Amino acid sequence: AAFETTLLIAKPDAVQRGLVGEIVGRLERKGLQLAGMKLVHVPRKLAEQHYAEHAGKGFFDGLIAFFTSAPVVVMAVRGVGSIAVCRTLIGATNGRLAAPGTIRGDLGLSGGHNLIHGSDSPESAERELSLWFDDAELIDYTSSSQGDVYD
Ligand code: DAT
Ligand code: MG
After folding, report:
1. Per-residue pLDDT tens for 53-81?
2. Closest ligand by atom to 12 CA
3. 73's torsion region: left (phi>0), alpha (psi -120 to 50) or beta?
4. Could you tell me which residues are beta bridge partners of residue 38?
5. Protein residue with its CA nearest to atom 23 in ligand 1
6. CB neighbours of 23 closer than 8 A, spacing ≥ 6?
7. What is the ipTM of this complex?
8. How many whole angstroms separate alpha carbon 20 and alpha carbon 15?
9. Which residues, 6 or more positions from 134, have their beta carbon under 8 angstroms from its beta carbon?
10. Interval between CA 119 and ligand 2 midpoint (Å)
11. 75: Cβ–Cβ under 8 A, 6 or more apart, which residues?
12. CB hemisphere CA count around 83 (13 angstroms)
C-alpha cells in the first residue's frame, strides 16, 4: 500500500459530546499521523459541496442541517493505506450496525449522528482534501515513531 492522506471530520455530535480527544487518540494510537487539523463551523455551501454525492436523497436536508449545526474538527491524516485503514477504524455508517472496536460501533447508536466522516476512496480523499485545506495548511514532517509503526 502507498503512503496516503485522507480527510476525516469529527462531526458536530463528536464535538458536542466531548469525544474529539477519544477519536483523535484512536488515530494516534493506531500510528496514523496528523497532517492538518482545524475547528470549523461549516457554512451551508461548503457542507453541500462536501456531501454533493448525496444531493437529492431523502436524508440530504437533515444531513446538511446536522452538519452545519455546531463546529466540527477537520483533519488530514497520513499513513500507509490511511484511506482504507481509517474507514475500517470508523466502522459501518449506522452506529447500531457498526462492529465493536470501531469508532461508530463503540461510541454511538445513531444512523445520522455517527460521529465521524472519512473519505471513501483515493478520488474522494483528493477532492475532499482540496475542499477543506489549502496546501499550506498541510504539514509535512517525519514522526519519530514511524520506524516502529511500520516494519
Ligand atoms: P459514510 O459516512 O459511512 O460514508 P454515506 O457517505 O453513505 O456514509 O452517508 C453520509 C452520511 O449521511 C452518513 O454518515 C450519515 C448520513 N446518512 C447516510 N445514509 C443515511 C440514511 N439512510 N438515513 C439517515 N442518514 C443517513
Ligand atoms: Mg461517505
Report:
1. 999 999 999 999 999 999 999 999 999 99
2. 1
3. beta
4. 74
5. 59
6. 10, 14, 103, 115, 116
7. 0.98
8. 6
9. none
10. 7
11. 7, 8, 9, 10, 24, 27, 34, 36, 37
12. 17
